[in-house]
Specification:
The chain has about 400 residues and is an alpha/beta fold. The protein contains 15 helices and 17 strands. Helix 2 (about 75-85) runs parallel beside helix 3 (about 105-115) and helix 6 runs parallel beside helix 8.
Length: about 400
């Protein structure tokens, strides 16, 4: 491939105060957290993978979970200091840490800010106490507002709020009320997404009553999108809205099919090895205790190389989430394929009104964003003619 794409670093801290019934992330309830041992394991884990990214700069860092704000400021400081010693970090890089209301106070937030965290993502989900109870959240609405105020006082000027819609018993007006309260706090970014029932969750096995049907959920989505637009939040991804210049750079790298190294229990990586003309995926041990016992060494449980058809589907799976789509050159640079490789699928999507494209730019239509799964599925399991690749089997450029 012409070169390595931008590189982000994801760090997974897997513990929560309580496992939410809708959550399918790798999170585990714990009364005590072995902070020192886990930070040691993370840094050992990173050292094992340094050869994969040797010489490359890390442009963004996202500390997710779980509930990372259960970790002390000293632990996060020690983690970031270790990263600085091992990695080439871009100046003024975006460093995000996830938090839940009630899991951290102003002193925690000050400590995070002082050690280098410059963006917070707070999992509010709703400002309606009845809905919070249904969702199994451990905080009440006033704690969400207090957490936001504490973050501001601690110095954070880049904050995301997670807000859900499509909740059990929720009306359109209640969905709008949640957003109005979120916007009233004036966060720089809002992640607004529909509650979905995922396998391997408590809600999947014990579904909540009175879930909104598709028509009601769509009505909520349209009303909320209009509200956010009117109040100055630009939708740049299917569930992400930001004030000017406040898009999440780490998530944009995902959606533009950049590389990311994931460390921590259950973390995933996608790494381009341009010199070998390969893209590899790696998955780490999910269970925190097993991960700790490995001390961050030999924690890889799965490794695979992406085929040409994998590259095409995963590229489209991510980039078509962006409201502005992508420039054609990005497809070429990240897959090593010419656009001819997907021309039939592009034409089908265009004929169905799901996509707009020309030789320079490709983006989903409003209909395509509404039926995003159908649009993405058009690029699944495509047969890729090797003549449409820029590379022969040994990596030599064969045509442009």
């Amino acid at each position: 491939m012409p070169g390595n794409p931008p590189l982000g670093l994801y760090i997974h801290l897997p513990w929560c105060e309580k496992k939410c019934p809708y959550c399918d992330f790798n999170s585990h309830q714990a009364e005590t957290i072995p902070e020192i041992d886990y930070i040691d394991a993370l840094l050992n884990d990173l050292e094992q993978d340094l050869p994969l990214i040797w010489g490359r700069s890390v442009e963004t860092l996202f500390i997710g979970g779980g509930t990372p704000s259960l970790f002390s400021g000293d632990a996060i400081d020690r983690l970031l200091s270790g990263l600085r010693a091992l990695l080439k970090l871009q100046p003024n890089m975006e460093v995000t840490l996830e938090s839940n209301p009630g899991s951290a106070d102003i002193e925690h937030f000050r400590a995070y800010h002082e050690c280098g965290v410059n963006r917070l993502s707070i999992g509010v989900q709703s400002f309606n106490d009845q809905h919070l109870k249904i969702l199994g959240r451990v905080h009440a609405s006033e704690l969400a507002c207090a957490a936001f105020d504490s973050a501001r006082q601690a110095g954070f000027d880049n904050i995301n709020l997670d807000v859900m819609y499509g909740l059990p018993t929720q009306s359109v007006q209640q969905a709008l009320s949640d957003l109005q309260q979120a916007v009233g706090l004036r966060p720089e970014h809002i992640s607004h997404y529909q509650l979905t029932i995922e396998p391997n969750t408590l809600f999947y096995h014990q579904p909540p009553a009175q879930m909104p049907d598709d028509d009601l959920a769509w009505e909520q989505q349209q009303a909320c999108q209009a509200l956010l637009k009117n109040l100055g939040y630009h939708q740049y991804e299917i569930s992400a809205y930001a004030r000017e210049y406040k898009q999440c750079r780490h998530n944009l790298n995902y959606w533009q099919f950049g590389d990311y190294l994931g460390i921590g229990a259950g973390a995933h990586s996608k790494i381009t090895l341009a010199g070998d003309n390969r893209v590899v995926r790696r998955i780490r041990q999910r269970q925190p205790q097993a991960y700790l016992q490995s001390q961050g060494r030999n924690s890889i449980t799965s490794e695979s190389e992406l085929s040409a058809s994998d590259l095409v589907f995963e590229f489209m799976l991510n980039t078509l989430r962006l409201t502005e789509g992508f420039e054609s050159r990005l497809f070429v640079e990240n897959t090593g394929l010419t656009l001819n490789a997907v021309l039939p699928a592009l034409q089908t999507a265009s004929d169905r009104g799901l996509l707009h494209f020309d030789t320079g730019h490709i983006r989903p239509s409003a209909l395509g964003l509404q039926y995003l799964n159908d649009l993405q599925a058009l690029f699944l399991d495509l047969e890729i003619d090797q003549k449409q690749s820029f590379f022969s089997s040994d990596g030599e450029i064969i045509h442009t």
